[in-house]
Structures are given as C-alpha cells and as structure tokens.
Amino acid sequence: MIMTIKRPFRIRTITVFVTLTHDDFHVDESTTPPVGDTPTPKVYDKLDECSSILRKLETNLINSGYEVQTVRISTNPFGEWLTEDECVGNESDPPHKSARVDTDAAIRRKLQLLNRLLDDHRINFFSCGPSTNPLHTIEICPQIIESSVKFSCSAKIDCGDISGARAAAACIQTISTLGNNTNANHLKGGLGNFRFCAASCVDTVPFFPAAKSPTNEASYSFAIGLENGGFARELLLGAKSISNIKSVFHSEMRKELLPIQEVCLAFVRDVKYSIEYLGIDTSLNPSLDEGGSVADAIECLDEVRGAFGGTGSLAAAAAITTSLQSIPDIKTTGYSGLMLPVLEDRRLAELGTTTISTDRITIQKLLCISSVCGVGIDTVPIPGDVSTESLSSLILDMAALAGRWNKPLSCRVFPVPGGNAGEETTFDSPYMCNSRVFDL
C-alpha cells in the first residue's frame, strides 16, 4: 500500500554498486547449464541481480511515499573489466602508439552487450567507473560516452597528477566535438560532457558521472542520492542565520532521512545474499523546479550579503556542509555537501549572465566555495577553443583542493563548440537550463 504522506524532497537516485571483472564477459566452460538453457556470461546474472535490488528498493521507497526519479548502476574502474590489456609505452607517446591487446571492436562489443542488458531491465543510467590510466582517459572514455546515452565515466585525478589532468582535459575536448558529425542529441553542442568528469578523492558517490564502485567489496552495495532544493530553501528560511543552521538541519534533516534509512536497512535484513547499505548522500542538490535553487536558498540567510557568491557565502557553505556530514543517527556517504551545478540551478545560471560585475558568479568564486563544500566545478560552460593547458590547470586546482582537505570533488565542464566567453548558451536538455559561456 502506497503511503499518501507528502515528502519534502525527491530521491534523485538509488545507485547500486557492483564489481565487474574480465571473466564476467566470458562463458564459464567448467559449469553445465540446465538442459535447454544456453550458457551466458556472468555479467548477465550480475545485472539481473542489480536490477532486482533496484526495483525492490524503488518499490519499497515509493510505497513509503517517496518519488524516485532514477535507478542507476555503477561499477569499479573500467580498466578492470572493459579492457583486456595493459596500455604500454610512455605516457608522453601519442595515443595511437599505445600497444593494445584488446581491440576497439572488442570494447564496443562489451559496451553493446551492456547497453542491451540495460534496455532489457529498463535502466537508463550506468557508470563505467573511472579511468585510472591517462591513456585510457584519452582513448576509451570518449568511446564510452559516444557509444550510448546511458553510459557515464570519469577520470581519477590525484593531487599534482599533471599527466592525468592533461589527459582528462584532452578527453573533455574530444567529447565536445563528438556531436559534429552525428544527429545524436546526447552529443550535440558538447552535451556528451554531461556524462564525464575529472574526479578526485571520490568513493561511493551515488551521483553521476563520478560514481564508482569499490573494488572487491561486498558483492553488491547501494546508496541514496537526493534532490532537495525546495527543502533547502524551507530549512534556510527557518534558520535565518548561519548560527542556527546546525540545529535546524540536525533536527529536520534527521526527521526526514530516518524513514529512508529504515527502508534501506530493512531491505538489507530481508535479503538472503551479501549486500551493503552505504548510506545517504545528504548533499543539498537543486532542481529546475520553481523554488528549487540551492543558491537562491542560501541568499535567504542574514549573513549572506547580496547575491550568492558574495561575502557570507563561504561561511554559509561551510556551515551547511559541516551540518550535512554530521546529522545524528544518519549514515552518510558520497559528497554530503553543497552541490552548485551552474546549469542545473536557475539562480546560479542567472548569476552567470548578470551584467552586475560584483554579482556575477565565476569559476574562481565556485572554486573558492568548493574549498569548504562539495562538489567542485559542475556543469560550467566554457569557451570551445579552451586550451588543454588552461583546462588541465583548472583540473589540477580541483584535485589540489580535494587532496589537501581529503574531500571528494569533481570537475565537469562543457566546452561549447564555437562558443566564446560571455555568449549565451543554447543547450537543449531536459536536465539543464542555459546561462553564458564562462571565462576560464
């Protein structure tokens, strides 16, 4: 029976994490299938199980009165299961010189199989995990993004990882051009970069494209991500002052999150196989709905002077993040901070276009605020002719913040083909609004 209680936010994602291996894509010759059955690779069974977990959790949460927007699957780094090879040669070599045992055709076959299985299970979001090799970032990440709108991936960048940052920058540039010779809407205008990011210190984040499964952990695990911009506004209006954020968030967030946690824990108790509940990513996450802007909600606080990004904003972001990561009795995971995706938050997008220079949001302002919260630089349009050097330096800044403070951060930017700084964007996506091209 579905409960009619009105919940103050949506569940953006239920994300199941699974570890894949090379062997999962090969038929086990040592086993004999039941008479009449055709032997299939183990990946069939793993995705069946992932789908079963997701649908049961989805049903249980819907029956508890929650709107569930998406269900998703995330894997361990794709170099552990998608590519059969070890890239050899020097990282400074051009990509075409890397020796590969596995061919592009073999990679495509695996991706096509996964895409077909996802279709069978009506699952539209699948993270292939991060690249941990700069050559994989350059060569394979664009293939993943191009092959299906369902697929996301990322590049793992450590603090000071110059070669990794350059590879991620080159990958972003390549992805931005994938739509030049295709009618695929998910690639046009650089939109493929919606499903790729450079990420640092990220683990068990349920949000895409940074999501990554732990390797060799429990057979399956899962986490919950929220969409709660309207609820954030309600809480911050109630708090009025930074000094009240902790008490308001601990009281109200705890009250609203406990029922979700109880549903998840009950599910783990009831199943007969190994599965781990990782927790809830408690991040404040905007929506495009009226009143769904997180930036607008923060402007309600007495200490935030003027537009978001001005004085007081950093203090507010720090207080919010500290509170979200310490909600009593709630197991947290992922970013559990403040999400500021420019093209997914109408107020941020507006501040990107304002002619009032003191109010205009910039990449440096966003990077500064990221020093005390998540998620990093997210859905920011930049000039199409951005240089690899400039873009890799931005990625290094993000990784430096993440490494210095041991916090998960990511960098997801959209080079706009033919776009120059200050020009308006014209993205056609149900997941984003438009702003202007930011100067890098």
From TrEMBL:
Q: Which InterPro entries match?
A: UPF0210
The protein depicted here goes by the name DUF711 family protein
